[in-house]
Write a structure and sequence with these properties.
With 416 residues, this protein is an alpha+beta fold. The chain is 49% helix and 9% strand. It contains 15 helices and nine strands. A hairpin with a 2-residue loop joins β6 and β7. α8 packs across α11 and α10 packs antiparallel against α11. It is globular. The structure holds protoporphyrin IX containing FE.
Length: 416
């Protein structure tokens, strides 16, 4: 191999332990030490290319160069994603399935979601006023579980709310865990899939009618490229692909609360917000705090990029956290500064907490607009519609455990 093709390589048999030790910073640390946005290593017993930065993101989202089938580790499929979901599809099949998701993200449907989210927050805050102490993360998961089910047209009996919130939470909390914490996520997925499959069968048998245009209504009627309806299991996986990540927004709401606590001057700016400061604040929370560390794909066919050779089927990781903290893109990336977004020129590859590129053609998160809307309603409650205190507690968050959640899950008191 000539020098021109050399990708900096981390020497050694396997570096999975370093990944576990360094977590969100694993790729960024090596990009710094190699002075390169791309390097090769060995993880999970395989050769892996790691890359970060906006140029790397642009090629990663080129669907001629990368594919997703079989790219996700089995432990993530068994907990986070489920089998045969949109995340694992390519080309025409992916495009059609992704349209199914994006069809429920219309302004009208998002408006419905905003109304439901406000109602659920109000209901919860009224309840919290009677409570000595509230564990915000758990309670917000319940708000979002109710919101998600009502919006998606999934009937949820009151006595099932806590169980379902916990199960959906276990699915995204367990993907990178080991032992019992990982198995909790697998069991949760098996149970929730079974429950949703029964609902799908009931709808198809005509016993239940989900609200028109809701996710449930659309997904049950969706047809594959071959003209057949999606099978029951796949409908359940895709419905869960709506419910689970809506509940996961609880993590961002914990980080909104943390940012309000650590940067109290921001609260004043938000209170007197007559412009779009709330949106700038939300974007900065999504950039600054850790959530998804990276995304994975396989090289679709051999290609060259900047003189580097990418060989077919090589596992490739794109550094999401590191790209959001890349000094070539962000001034002072370790400073929390919402105003940086005031003059930010829109670019599909600079700011990628929920993936990059185009929503319809690629794998960028289908729920990014929805996430921002839910965060806006939540921030309005936290700043303008309630008062509360944060008692002494451990507010630290790990840069290793994925996903990272503040240690105390944020306890609040004296809600008024
Ligand atoms: C909680 C905040 C969220 C974060 C941090 C997040 C992050 C992500 C990331 C990193 C991806 C993968 C992008 C890629 O593979 O290149 C993704 C994909 C996806 N997300 Fe989200 N997401 C969030 C919320 C949501 C919500 C609320 C929904 C739906 C209501 C949603 C639905 C999806 C779907 C369906 C995909 C797969 C898209 C595809 O493969 O084409 N996400 N998300």
């Amino acid at each position: 191999m000539s020098d021109a093709n050399y990708i900096p390589r981390e020497e050694g048999i396997d570096h999975t332990l370093s990944l576990m030790r360094e977590g969100y910073l694993y790729i960024l640390n090596r990009r710094r030490s190699f002075h390169s946005d791309i390097f090769e290593t060995r993880l999970f017993g395989k050769k892996v290319i790691c890359m970060g930065g906006n140029e790397a993101a642009e090629i990663f989202y080129d669907t001629e160069k990368f594919k997703r089938k079989n790219a996700a580790p089995n432990r993530a499929v068994q907990t986070l994603f489920g089998k045969n979901g949109v995340q694992s599809l390519d080309d025409k099949e992916h495009k059609l399935r992704k349209e199914m998701f994006m069809s429920i993200m219309s302004p009208e449907e998002l408006e419905k979601l905003i109304i439901i989210t406000k109602e659920q927050w109000q209901f919860a805050v009224d309840k919290w006023r009677q409570m000595d102490e509230v564990i915000l993360y758990d309670e917000v998961q319940e708000i979002l579980c109710r919101t998600a089910c009502q919006w998606a047209g999934v009937p949820l009996p009151e006595e099932e709310v806590t169980r379902l919130s916990e199960d959906l939470g276990a699915m995204f909390e367990s993907a990178a865990k080991v032992g019992p914490n990982h198995w909790k996520g697998r069991n949760a997925r098996n149970q929730v899939e079974k429950w949703v499959e029964e609902l799908v069968n009931n709808v198809r048998a005509g016993n239940v009618q989900p609200p028109k245009n809701s996710a449930f209504d659309q997904f049950v009627r969706h047809r594959n490229l071959d003209g057949h309806l999606l099978d029951t299991e796949t409908v359940a996986v895709e419905i869960i692909n709506i419910l689970r990540p809506i509940v996961a927004i609880a993590i961002y709401i914990n980080f909104l609360t943390l940012a309000l606590h650590y940067y109290p001057e921001e609260r004043n700016k938000l209170k007197s917000d007559h412009t779009n400061y709330a949106e700038l604040f939300i974007q900065e929370v999504r950039r600054f705090y850790p959530f998804f560390p990276f995304v994975s794909a396989l090289v679709k066919k051999d290609f060259m990029w900047k003189d580097y050779t990418f060989e077919k089927d090589t596992l490739t990781l794109l550094d999401l956290y590191g790209t959001n903290h890349d000094p070539n893109i962000w001034d002072n990336p370790e400073r929390f500064n919402p105003e940086r977004f005031a003059n930010k020129v829109e670019n599909l590859y600079d700011f990628i907490p929920q993936g990059g590129g185009d929503y319809f053609m690629g794998h960028r998160c289908a729920g990014e607009w929805l996430t921002i809307e839910v965060m806006k309603v939540s921030l309005d409650y936290l700043v303008n519609k309630m008062e509360f205190e944060l008692p002494k507690q451990d507010l630290s968050y790990s840069m290793v455990s994925m996903p990272s959640i503040p240690q105390s899950r944020i306890v609040i008191k004296n809600v008024k």
